[in-house]
């Protein structure tokens, strides 16, 4: 498994507090089957943009410490970038600063205030500059989840979708669990990430998530092995290869059970 979304760098955002915590988080990752992890600290949150040099230096320090601790995991630099007009200032054409593992892929986060038409225009501008956008934890955006036709049109335009593995377990509530189950049924999950922030909550441990995926696959009679497929997709990021996922033409709604058909709720 390749974890493309994590807050493992120490003391740079609201994630890991220090190097000890970082190493514990990496240990959790490794025991849950993660072989590669991309550090994606928050960038442009509240207007704060840490320098790319700082992110790269911290990533190198963490990689070195993990090697000394004999942790079997590869660590790459990246960022989770809050999307607003400011991104056009620091995401420059021809530079892969703030991208995932030195590739053209960028992990973008929307806010509650984001308007989907404005976000789409900004993302298009970034695509013109050569970036390949990945939308972080898409299940959180009500505006998009309520209009899956928009989501499908975005995916057809090359916007890739990442879900948090904790959403499949119900850790972030039933509502988000429903959203990821809908996305999975529609083959609209391209990447998984832990979005791990700490060791005691919102961790980098993916084992429960892996179990939840297996159960869901059986429940939905879904042929898609999401753990495997998202790992293969993520390896394209690490190898700087383009990903063209199959995107459905329409959104399949969940079939209602007998009780719901009879009584409507
Ligand atoms: Fe995150």
Summary keywords:
about 260 residues, about 40% helix, 9 strands, single chain, alpha/beta, binds fe (ii) ion, TIM Barrel
Layout: helices, strands, pairs:
Blueprint: E1 2-6, H1 19-31, E2 36-39, E3 42-43, H2 52-68, E4 74-77, E5 80-82, H3 87-90, E6 105-109, H4 116-128, E7 132-135, H5 142-145, H6 148-156, E8 160-164, H7 165-169, H8 174-185, E9 191-193, H9 207-220, H10 226-238, H11 258-263
Parallel strand pairs: 1-2, 2-4, 3-5, 5-6, 6-7, 7-8, 8-9
Q: Could you explain how this protein is built, in words?
A:
With 265 residues, the chain is of the alpha/beta class. The protein has a single domain, classed as TIM Barrel, CATH 3.20.20. Helices cover 42% and strands 13% of the residues. It contains eleven helices and nine strands. The protein has helices at residues 19-31, 52-68, 87-90, 116-128, 142-145, 148-156, 165-169, 174-185, 207-220, 226-238, 258-263, and strands spanning 2-6, 36-39, 42-43, 74-77, 80-82, 105-109, 132-135, 160-164, 191-193. The strands form two sheets. A six-stranded parallel beta sheet has the order 3-5-6-7-8-9. It has a three-stranded parallel beta sheet with strand order 1-2-4. Helix 4 links the parallel strand 6 (105-109) and strand 7 (132-135). The protein is globular. The protein binds fe (ii) ion. Fe (ii) ion binds at residues 5, 7, 80, 136, 195. Fe (ii) ion is lined by residues 5, 7, 80, 136, 195.
């Amino acid at each position: 498994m390749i974890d493309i979304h994590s807050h493992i760098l120490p003391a740079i955002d609201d994630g890991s507090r220090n190097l000890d915590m970082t190493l514990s988080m990496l240990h959790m990752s490794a025991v849950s089957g993660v072989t590669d992890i991309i550090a994606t600290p928050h960038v442009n949150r509240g207007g704060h943009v840490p320098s790319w040099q700082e992110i790269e230096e911290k990533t190198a320090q963490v990689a070195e410490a993990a090697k000394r601790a004999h942790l079997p995991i590869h660590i790459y630099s990246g960022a989770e970038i809050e999307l607003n007009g400011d991104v056009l200032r620091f995401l420059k054409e021809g530079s892969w600063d703030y991208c995932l593992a030195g590739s053209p892929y960028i992990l973008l986060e929307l806010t509650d205030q984001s308007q989907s038409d404005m976000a789409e225009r900004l993302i298009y501008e970034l695509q013109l500059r050569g970036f390949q956008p990945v939308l972080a934890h898409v299940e959180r955006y009500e505006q998009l989840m309520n209009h899956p036709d928009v989501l499908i049109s975005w995916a057809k335009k090359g916007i890739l979708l990442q879900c948090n593995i904790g959403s499949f377990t119900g850790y972030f509530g039933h509502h988000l669990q429903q959203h990821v189950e809908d996305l999975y049924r529609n083959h609209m999950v391209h990447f998984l990430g832990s979005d791990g922030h700490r060791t005691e909550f919102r961790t980098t441990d993916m084992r429960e998530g892996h179990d939840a995926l297996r159960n869901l696959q059986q429940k939905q009679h879904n042929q898609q092995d999401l753990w495997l497929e998202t790992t293969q997709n993520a390896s394209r990021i690490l190898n700087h290869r383009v990903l063209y996922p199959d995107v459905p033409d329409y959104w399949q709604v969940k079939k209602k059970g007998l009780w719901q058909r009879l009584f409507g709720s």
